[in-house]
Amino acid sequence: MPTWFQNQMKRAFYEKNRYQIKLLNQCWFFYRKKHGS
Known about the structure:
The protein contains two helices and no strands. By secondary structure, the protein is mainly α. The chain is flat, with a radius of gyration of 10 Å.
């Protein structure tokens, strides 16, 4: 997982921003699917 992505996740969890967490999870899911890891 890229560093910038980890930072975004940490901030979202810290702020308890459910919308952002959901969005980031979707982005990560598509990213992994696309890059086949």
